[in-house]
Sequence to fold (255 residues):
Amino acid sequence: MIETHNLSKNYNAKNAVNNVTLTIQEGEIFGFLGANGAGKTTTVKMLTGMIFPTSGSAHVAGFDVVQRGIEVKKRIGYVPENGALFESLTGWEYLQFTADLHHLDPHVSLKRIEEFLTLFGLWDERNGRIQQYSKGMKQKILIAAALIHNPQVLFLDEPLNGLDANAALVFKELLKKLSGQKKTVFFTSHVLDVVEKLCTRIVVIHEGIIIADGTAAQIAQSTGQATLEEAFHTLTGVRDARESAQDFLEALGRE
Fold:
């Protein structure tokens, strides 16, 4: 469903993504982890056709992301880390606009908009301007817009930002059901316990290079750690969290 071969992106002399080769099957909930600046968002932007790679290739849903970018966009949904909305529209109008962009049948779009707004508890706010929505409400609209056309592949960059506990639980259950329907989910997040519980396979990228690939248990075992979080710190060379916290407290105590 997603294939990359030596996918790379350079900015001046910096290799943001360096020869990334991946094969992600349909039905996978694929976790893509890395520290800030590791190359996660750059990779997602290349796979969704937002930027072109410097070298290498990528195919999504059977189509080359450079040569057949429009075909790729028809088949994917994307929730960016910092999504921009047309905030002068109402929630209903924005979802209708998105449905129209995908040329959905009016009866289908009407039903889906009603279902999504109800699912995320936004029905009573459907005619309110998005500029008046809370951060969590805006995130729900972004998620609904990404799903409105029933995409084959879903790219999620920190999708739980701003969601309350109940909405996050509904969304995670929805992802599991989409996986059961053979939809592919590409999930990036810094919330490692969510990734550990939700994702069927995880890749860790560091300084643009893949350094681990497997289930959460396999990655933890390969590093001699008990959890994915501990393994991640080991793999990415981050200082021990306890030591860092202690050093910070000591710095606060100095006069």
The chain has a mean pLDDT of 92. Residues 165-180 form the longest helix (16 residues). The chain has two domains: 2-75+152-253, 86-150. The radius of gyration is 20 Å.
